[in-house]
Specification:
10 strands, globular, D-Maltodextrin-Binding Protein, domain 2, 13 helices, 10-stranded mixed β-sheet, 2 domains, 333 residues, alpha/beta
Length: 333
């Protein structure tokens, strides 16, 4: 028991320290309209289906940075393998800044898990710009009798292995939130991976699965429409969009904290000037009131910063989740 307490304490300390990382915002820079991306077509690959949070965030930022760069930014959804099909294509592409990848927490998790992938995320990708931070939310089917986190934990302990939770794929932030919940609450809920959060949400509303951890931006509409019931926010604080929903930490699992983020990456070897231009355009876009408002309505917040900020965050997440995966004995391959 003493050893377990030490492991749990160490795990919580790492979780809290990693998420205390703040990305230093840099002032918006003026994008040089005559840079080498002017008049070019840039592909932004998203590894999840249309209609989900990744798609919404990706299209929102693509719409804004295109005019700033005087370029045509085209969004392409290439779902599958928890975003790794899209990532593999970007890793193979020419390092000229014309192919971008919308990364998220699943990438450092996959790296930490040492999954057998056709690329190495640290070696093959150059960080460009962090776009947003967004907490997840635990939602359940209305058929589930549990009305709060404490009742859910009690139900899970009463019927171990019977309850299941959906995610957008193995290694996604939604999956990891569920595994951390299992570990910290000492319950055994079964993970059911889907190819994106959209089909998972459909099954949840239909009562085919009991619960899921979903990105707040896509879950809000279904929560407000009373199609699902929200039990807790995965981040460290409540969100303005759902002020009555407590955090999981305050509702029964002290120290619980998992948040998603979305960021732009490009193949390693892309010229620094090109990366800096895209970074500057992204920061300018994130300062636009209409984009701030759009993200706020979805429970997300803009996260301007430098490529180095994003690189540091990636490495911090890899180290943190390596500990979580090992402690909870989670393997993907």
């Amino acid at each position: 028991m003493f050893l377990q307490q030490r492991v749990t304490t160490s795990l919580l300390t790492l979780v809290l320290c990693a998420f205390s990382l703040t990305v230093t915002a840099q002032p918006a820079q003026t994008v040089n309209a005559t840079n080498i991306l002017s008049g070019k077509t840039i592909r932004l690959l998203i590894g999840f289906p249309a209609g989900g949070t990744s798609d919404s965030i990706g299209r929102s930022i693509a719409e804004k940075i295109g005019p700033l760069l005087q370029a045509n930014v085209i969004v392409e959804n290439k779902p599958g393998a928890n975003g790794n099909i899209a990532a593999a294509e970007v890793a193979r592409s020419t390092p000229d800044g014309l192919t971008l990848y919308l990364g998220s927490l699943n990438n450092p998790v996959n790296q930490a898990a040492e999954r057998k992938l056709p690329f190495d995320f640290v070696r093959d990708f150059a960080p460009v710009a962090l776009v947003t931070h967004a907490p997840n939310v635990l939602i359940v089917t209305k058929k589930l009798p549990a009305q709060n986190i404490e009742e859910l934990i009690a139900l899970a302990k009463k019927e171990p292995g019977k309850l299941s939770f959906a995610s957008a794929g193995a290694g996604s932030s939604l999956h990891m939130a569920g595994e951390l919940f299992n570990y910290m609450a000492q319950v055994n809920m079964v993970h059911v991976p889907y190819k994106g959060s959209t089909p998972a949400m459909a099954d949840l509303m239909g009562g085919h699965i009991e619960m899921m951890f979903d990105n707040l931006p896509t879950a809000i509409a279904q929560i407000k429409a009373n199609n699902v019931r929200a039990l807790g926010i995965t981040g460290s604080t409540r969100v303005a969009a759902l002020p009555d929903i407590p955090t999981i930490a305050e509702a029964g699992i002290p120290g619980f904290n998992v948040s998603s983020y979305f960021a732009l990456f490009t193949p390693t070897g892309t010229p620094t000037a090109v990366i800096d231009a895209i970074n500057a355009a992204t920061n300018q876009a994130l300062a636009m009131p209409e984009l701030k408002e759009k993200f706020a309505q979805q429970g997300a917040s803009p996260a301007p910063g430098t490529p180095k900020d994003l690189g540091d965050l990636t490495m911090s997440e890899i180290k943190k989740w390596a500990v979580v995966l090992k402690a909870a004995n989670i393997k993907f391959d």
